[in-house]
Every structure is written in structure tokens, then in C-alpha cells.
Amino acid sequence: MSSPQQSALRFHRRRVPPSPQVSTCCSFAPPLPPRDCSFPSSSSAAMSPEISMLIRRAALIFTVLTLSALLLYTASDSLRLLPLSSASLSSSSFARIFPSYLNNYASSPIIDSENPTQQLEEVLKNASMVNKTVILTTLNDAWASPNSVVDLFLKSFMLGDGTRRLLDHLVIVALDEKAYNRCRIIHKHCFALVTEDVDFHQEAYFMTPHYLKMMWRRIDFLRSVLELGYSFVFTDADIMWFRDPFPRFFPDADFQIACDNFLGRPDDMNNRPNGGFNYVKSNNRSIAFYKFWFSAHETYPGYHDQDVLNMIKFHPFISDIGLKIRFLDTAYFGGLCEPSQDLNLVCTMHVNCCFGMDSKLHDLKIMLQDWRAFMSLPPDLKNESIISWRVPQNCSLDSLRHFGSPPPEMDFQQEEED
């Protein structure tokens, strides 16, 4: 019994005589002046109105306390049966956009659904390396279906040389509901990036307005990661990870990025960067740079982030803030624009300079087959580099001629896939 209940009972026992008797005088009869209206002996004691009121008040307090305790017990028992109250998410913009998210949220950490920054910080913390560095990729519906790009992306980590452990530090940033649900099935670190009134679930064809909006949303998101104090390696999902890239990064650079075309020197600002792969350290310089980069899309409307980077990399603001930029050698960070020639050196390979989902999937599968064949060789034959890439095949620079809009057959295929 609770302390308030015990106090009430003690009060009850202290104030009520064992066998009260009602007197003919005192409380029920009109007062008679000659008589002495005092309490009689214990065998015939009577209660005054004040004592009766106190008893009723104690009984009321006891009843209220008992009902409160019962309600609290019932509520706590119900909470044990429910992993998360859906009422706590009812006003969340995320819940309004992704209704099925409530079905998957039970296995996630319970965090403030009204605070996406707190949610992001929780995911980053769980995936972070000891130096607060994470690996990030974005995913939408078009690349999230089974046997699509994301499966090949994760498979490359499993087949790579020393890359499997890096999956513990990979965060998949889902741009739509289907991508988020798929991520929850295949990976443990998932974050839903909600953009009000924007649906990123379809394939974003190169340089279309939809593609541009997605690219600039990504830049703004990466800025927020830096502001939370996390450094990151950003990687497109159509990049295969074959070796741990961290030993090949420059230890003193703030911002380092892969190239479509590498001219031989990492500090040559004429290198042609590719925004699909970069390593950025969180500090005041990199945060200022990402803010400047994002704001530049208003200065250069209609251009994607990579083209704008090529324009602003010579801007005096870069040197004013002291940002140190380094460009990554395609010998280690190659792509179909400029493949890494030596499989003994390659860390990542990007299916860039390629248009269309089917072409990407075809060449990605060929690339993984080539890597498997290389890894199966004995050490002496690996050093002789007798195996080289068989790609590009379906991907080619010619495919980019149609970047303004998808060819008719691609529209038809996409409608069938949807």
C-alpha cells in the first residue's frame, strides 16, 4: 500500500471510536441550555460534524489515490505491450509523408520524431568511426529495388579487399518511403531525408530539373552533417568499393574529391572533379565552403553541383577561408570516364559517363565479375596484371548526348518498371 493510503488509514483509525453511539443531544437535537453537551464515556461516544467531515474527506482521498494507482498500473502495462506509441508520431511531418514508417520504427532507437536533426545525429553516432567519420550514400526508389544498384553496391563491400568492416560505418540516406523500407531490410544504418512536397522515388535522368533538385538537396544535407561535427566520405551507390580508401586520402586536406579526368597533380585546380565521391573533414572551413557551394546554385541556375564546383573552385572565397582542396588520382579512384588501369591499386570504380539504369546495371555486373576473377588469382599472377576491366560496354560517352531528356524507349521501359 502506498504512503498516502497508509496515512489515510492511520488518520481513520485515530479519529473514529470503535463503537460510536448516537447521543440524543449534541449534534442531532436542539441545544438545551441547562444540559452539558459533552462526550460521554467510550461506550456511548458520539461524533461531532467536524469529525464526520474529516472521515468523509479521508475516505475521498483514499478512493482517489486508489483509482489513480489503478490507472497508472493499467497504462504502464499497456506501454509494455506497445513498442512505441503511434500518438507520439502523429504530428510528425515524417509520419504524414511516410505512413508505413510507423510499422518499421519499433526496431529503431526511440528519439524525438519532431526533431529530424536529433534523429540524424543518433544515426550518425551509431555508425561513426572513433574519429567521428561516417560513410554516406543516398538512395531512392529507382535504385532500391531487389537486384538493383544498391544490392551491387553492398556486394562490392563484401567482395572487396578489407572493405566488409566499413559497412558498419555506412549510412544509407533514403530519399523516399520505398527506399527507406528497402534499406531497413538490407542494412542497419538508415536515415530518411524528408523533403516537403518533393518526391524523389523515380529515376532522376541526368540534367533534368528533377535530377538538379536531387543533387542540390544532397549538397545541403551534407552541409548539415558537417555542422553536427561529423566528417564523411560521400559515395554514389553506383560506385564499387574494392579496397579501403582511407590510406589513399591526404591527411591534411579539408576537401578531397574524385575526378572524371585527373591531370596528374592532386593540387591542380584544372582537374575535372566528380561529385559522386569525396572525403570532407568537419571544420569551419568545410562548413563555410558547403554553404558557399549551395548558395552558388542561385548564381548559376540550371547547373548541377559538379559544374558549379568547377566554376567556384577558382573563386577568391576559397582561398580567403583557407580551404585545402585535393583531387584524387583515378589510378586509385577510377570510373568509366577514366578507368583505373591496375587492379592491384584500385580502391573504387564509378559507373560514371553512363546514361540509363539498364546500362549501369549491365556494366556494374561485368565490373564485379572482373574483380572476382582478379581476386581468385594466385598472388604472383595478380602482380602481373593479366586481368583488366571489360567495361565500359553498354555505358559509353556517346550515351550522354541525350542527357537533356530520356530517349523514348527509356520512358517506355521506366513505365513498365513502375
Structural features:
single chain; 418 residues; alpha/beta; Spore Coat Polysaccharide Biosynthesis Protein SpsA, Chain A; 2 domains; seven-stranded mixed beta sheet; three-stranded mixed beta sheet; 15 helices; 10 strands; disordered N terminus; disordered C terminus
The helix tally amounts to 15
- Rg over CA atoms: 35 Å
What is the level 1 CATH name of the largest domain?
A: Alpha Beta
Number of strands: 10
The percentage of residues in β strands lies in 5-15%
The largest pleated sheet is described as: 7 strands, mixed
Residue share in helix: 40-55%
Instruction: Quickly give the structural class.
Output: alpha/beta
- Strand order in the sheet with the most strands: 3-2-1-4-7-6-8
Shape: elongated
List the helices and strands and how they pair.
Elements lengths: L2 H13 L33 H33 L11 H5 L3 H4 L11 H12 L5 E7 L1 H4 L4 H11 L10 E5 L2 H10 L3 E3 L16 H19 L3 E5 L3 E3 L13 E7 L10 E9 L3 H16 L5 H8 L3 H6 L3 E3 L5 E3 L12 E3 L6 H19 L3 H5 L24 H10 L1
Parallel strand pairs: 1-2, 1-4, 2-3, 6-8, 9-10
Antiparallel strand pairs: 4-7, 5-10, 6-7
Helix pairs in contact: 1-2, 7-13, 9-10, 10-11
